[in-house]
Design brief:
11 strands; alpha/beta; 11-stranded mixed β-sheet; 33% helix; single chain; Rossmann fold
Length: 284
């Protein structure tokens, strides 16, 4: 059983979120953005439902709560819990694969604002390939690498990066919010993607979490929040050490023109972070 579980973790990046962590994350979102009132909640890879139930509890006004999961065993756990709830009629559960789901059909007609939450897989396409796994999207150069870069290794990517770009594109022209647990490096890549492609985003923030404590994983991870409203853009992103906000840093985008003036690589937009107004280094 342990060996099977280990393969699941390696192929699917299957780190199930502790309920307390999901509750803390959703409580943080609700506290720090009380004006955001989702009509629809979606967890595209809901696992055993930690974020699905945390969001349902913190946002009782949400009309519809949609959860998808490819592992039948996990979905059975979620269904059993839903059956015990007084608000079971709000839940819409699907035994489905993220990569094979007709998302536009599923999303059409959903009420706004939409909250997309969860903890997508922490695994790369190369890791899955070595395991001869199948938990992969269709091949495409979604990172827009050119020439040899697209075929000689640089196109290796985290599965969650591809998923989160899809999530962001779903709500890009609508009122919505991504509230996701992910690697900090992936959160920075999603910010870069949004800012470079002109997706209107606001209220971006990251809250560092202890991945070793919660998942026994030696990786920088965060609770990543990014809002869309269809027309307004801000290239600021606040960064906090924990949910209690003991220490604040700020990310922002440096333009190509600024990079040129400082003899930096003007072909790439860089993300810098500052600590109380002082530049400390380049991230990403």
């Amino acid at each position: 059983m342990t060996q099977v579980k280990d393969v699941k973790i390696r192929e699917f990046g299957d780190f199930q979120t502790p309920g307390a962590l999901a509750q803390n994350a959703m409580a943080y979102l609700r506290t720090h953005d009380p004006a955001f009132q989702p009509a629809t909640i979606i967890e595209p890879t809901c696992g055993t439902g930690a974020f699905l139930f945390a969001a349902a509890d913190l946002y009782p006004e949400a009309q519809r709560i949609v959860g998808l999961e490819r592992e039948a065993m996990y979905l059975d756990v979620v269904r059993a819990k839903v059956e015990q709830r007084r608000d079971a009629n709000r839940f819409d559960l699907h035994h489905a694969d993220f990569f094979k789901t007709e998302w536009q059909n599923l999303l059409s007609g959903l009420s706004e604002p939409v909250l997309i939450t969860g903890n997508p897989p922490w695994v790369t396409n190369a890791d899955i390939g070595r395991l001869k796994g199948s938990n992969l999207p269709g091949k495409s150069n979604f990172q827009k690498y050119a020439g040899l870069e697209s075929v000689m290794g640089k196109a290796n990517f985290d599965i969650s990066e591809w998923m989160l770009i899809q999530n962001l594109n779903w709500i890009a022209k609508h009122k919505g919010c991504l509230a996701i647990l992910c690697k900090t490096a992936i959160a920075r890549k999603i910010l870069r993607y949004a800012w470079n492609t002109g997706v209107p985003t606001t209220a971006s923030r990251m809250v560092q979490i202890d991945a070793m404590k919660h998942f026994s994983a030696a990786v920088d991870a965060c609770f990543f929040v990014l809002k869309t409203n269809g027309n307004q853009t801000s290239t600021n992103c606040e960064f906090f050490d924990n949910f209690k906000e003991i220490h604040l840093r700020i990310f922002w985008v440096i333009t190509k023109e600024w990079c040129s003036r400082t003899s930096m690589d003007s072909t790439n937009t860089r993300l810098f972070w500052v600590e109380i107004g002082t530049i400390h280094g380049v991230r990403g």
